[in-house]
Amino acid sequence: MSRPSRRGRPAEAVKLGSRLTGRGQRVALRPLIEGDREAATRRLEETLIDADDSLLAIIAREGDSVYGVLAYRLGYPERGWLSVKAVAVEPGLSGRGYDTEAVRLLEGEVLERGVAGRFWAPVRHDDGLGLYFWLRLGYRPAAVSQSPWPGAAPRDMMALVRLPTA
């Protein structure tokens, strides 16, 4: 499920998802607790996340039902970036927008705290649904000058970036 970190600890150690942000959301984010680990592993088994990635549970705003999991890293590849590595919801809940709300909630929290102002997500070239998901959220393929990967992107991956406007 995960691979060892290629770099040191993330540039910024900020605990996210520890409070509710945003109004009118159907979901909230919180750090994983002991009982969430097995479900998170099952949802993220086909993603390549690093040991330095942080995981948040996507939960129902009313109650504590776990809808999915979100993997992110702050300060990667450098200070001011938020990398959203994976978003996964239970198969029976897909298509309802919970994953979109979770990403927007995380983006809003880092903007509010001032710890990131640029966002990116890695997508495999053969993942059409993943590409569509990020395009709907306003992410665009990264120009060579915007690529978050040192050197070139891995052969089968592309970077999608979003630079929020004020």
Can you walk through the features of this model?
19% of the residues lie in helices and 31% in strands. The model is unreliable at 1-13 and 20-24 (pLDDT under 50). The strands form 2 sheets. Strands 2-4-5-6-7-9-8 form a 7-stranded mixed sheet, with helices on both faces. A two-stranded parallel ribbon has the order 1-3. It has 166 residues and is α+β, with helices and mostly antiparallel strands. It has 3 helices and 9 strands; from the N terminus they run E-E-H-E-E-E-E-H-E-H-E-E. 32% of the residues are buried. The protein has helices spanning 37-43, 98-113, 128-136, and strands at residues 2-3, 27-31, 49-50, 54-60, 66-74, 80-89, 116-124, 140-141, 157-162. A hairpin with a 5-residue loop joins strand 5 and strand 6. The protein has a single domain, classed as Aminopeptidase (3-Layer(aba) Sandwich), CATH 3.40.630.30.
Map the helices and strands:
Elements: E1 2-3, E2 27-31, H1 37-43, E3 49-50, E4 54-60, E5 66-74, E6 80-89, H2 98-113, E7 116-124, H3 128-136, E8 140-141, E9 157-162
Parallel strand pairs: 1-3, 6-7
Antiparallel strand pairs: 2-4, 4-5, 5-6, 7-9, 8-9
